[in-house]
C-alpha cells in the first residue's frame, strides 16, 4: 500500500533522505571521535620520542590523521568497487544480494533515452552514455586509488618521523609503499571488507530482517534468489 508523503516540506525532506542523513551523521560523529582520540594518542607517541606536541588543528593535517583516515577509507571503496563489479556476472543461489539465477533483471536492460526523467547522459548517448553506464564502479575505483595515495602519503610522514628518531634513513612515499608495514596496514583492512561481503551474501541465504531491502521476505524459502 502506497504511503502519503508528509505534508511538511521539511519532514518530507527528512523522510526522503533519512538514510543518507543518518549515515552522514554517523560518519561525522565517528570522525570527531577518531580525531580527538587520535590527537591524544599521537601526542603520547610524540612525547615518548621527545617531540613537541601538536595542536588539534596541526593534528588534522598531520600524517597520523591522514594515514588513519584513508587507510580505512581505501578498504571501503575497494569493497564497494569489487562488490558492484562482481554482482554483475556472479550469482549466489538463495542470497538476497545476488541477481536471480536464470532470469533477466531490470538492471540488465538497455538504457532507453526516451524514458521519462532519463538522465542527460542517457539522452546524449555515445561516450557519455558509456561513461555513465559504468560511472558507479569508476567512481569507487578512483576513490580507492585516491585513498591509497593519501594513506601512503600520511603513512610515509609518520614512518619518517620514527626513522629520524631512530637515526635511520627516511624514505619517499613510493619507498614507504614498498615496506611490509604499508601492505600489512592495507591487507588487514582489505580482508575485513571481503569478509563483510562473504557475510552478507552468505547469511542472507538463511537469515531474515523484516523491513530491510537487504533481506528476502521473512516467508521466502532459503533457495529463493534475489530480494
What amount of the residues lies in strands?
under 5%
String of helices and strands: HHHHHHHHH
What's the main sheet like? Answer: none
What distance lies between the first and last C-alpha atoms, to the nearest angstrom? 18 Å
Number of strands: 0
> What is the number of helical segments per DSSP (H or I, 4+ residues)?
9
Overall body shape:
elongated
- Stretches where pLDDT is under 50 for at least 5 consecutive residues are none
The helicity comes to 55-70%
> Could you tell me the mean pLDDT?
93
State Rg: 23 Å
Structural class: mainly alpha
Write the layout of secondary structure elements.
Layout: H1 9-16, H2 18-48, H3 56-60, H4 63-89, H5 120-124, H6 126-133, H7 135-165, H8 173-177, H9 180-206
Helix pairs in contact: 4-7, 4-9
Word description of this protein:
This protein is mainly alpha-helical and 227 residues long. It contains 9 helices and no strands. It has helices at 9-16, 18-48, 56-60, 63-89, 120-124, 126-133, 135-165, 173-177, 180-206. α4 runs antiparallel to α7 (135-165) and α4 packs across α9 (180-206). The longest helix is centred in the N-terminal third of the chain and has 31 residues, at 18-48. 15% of the residues are buried.
Give a summary of the structure in a few sentences.
This protein has nine helices and no strands. With 227 residues, it is mainly α.
Task: Offer a few descriptive terms.
227 residues; mainly alpha; 9 helices; 65% helix; elongated
Amino acid at each position: 500500500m502506497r504511503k502519503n508523503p508528509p505534508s511538511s516540506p521539511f519532514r518530507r525532506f527528512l523522510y526522503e533522505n533519512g538514510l543518507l542523513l543518518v549515515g552522514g551523521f554517523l560518519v561525522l560523529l565517528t570522525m570527531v571521535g577518531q580525531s580527538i582520540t587520535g590527537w591524544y594518542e599521537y601526542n603520547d607517541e610524540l612525547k615518548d620520542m621527545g617531540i613537541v606536541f601538536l595542536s588539534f588543528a596541526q593534528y588534522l593535517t598531520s600524517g597520523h590523521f591522514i594515514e588513519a583516515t584513508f587507510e580505512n577509507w581505501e578498504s571501503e571503496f575497494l569493497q564497494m568497487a569489487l562488490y558492484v563489479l562482481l554482482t554483475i556476472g556472479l550469482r549466489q543461489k538463495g542470497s538476497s544480494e545476488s541477481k536471480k539465477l536464470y532470469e533477466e533483471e531490470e538492471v540488465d536492460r538497455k538504457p532507453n533515452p526516451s524514458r521519462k526523467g532519463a538522465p542527460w547522459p542517457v539522452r546524449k548517448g555515445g561516450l557519455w552514455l558509456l561513461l555513465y553506464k559504468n560511472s558507479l564502479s569508476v567512481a569507487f575505483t578512483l576513490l580507492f586509488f585516491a585513498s591509497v595515495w593519501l594513506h601512503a602519503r600520511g603513512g610515509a610522514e609518520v614512518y619518517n618521523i620514527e626513522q629520524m628518531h631512530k637515526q635511520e634513513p627516511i624514505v619517499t612515499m613510493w619507498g614507504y609503499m614498498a615496506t611490509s608495514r604499508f601492505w600489512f596496514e592495507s591487507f588487514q583492512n582489505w580482508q575485513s571488507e571481503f569478509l563483510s561481503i562473504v557475510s552478507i551474501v552468505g547469511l542472507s541465504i538463511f537469515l531474515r530482517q523484516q523491513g530491510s531491502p537487504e533481506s528476502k521476505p521473512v516467508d521466502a524459502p532459503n533457495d529463493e534468489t534475489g530480494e
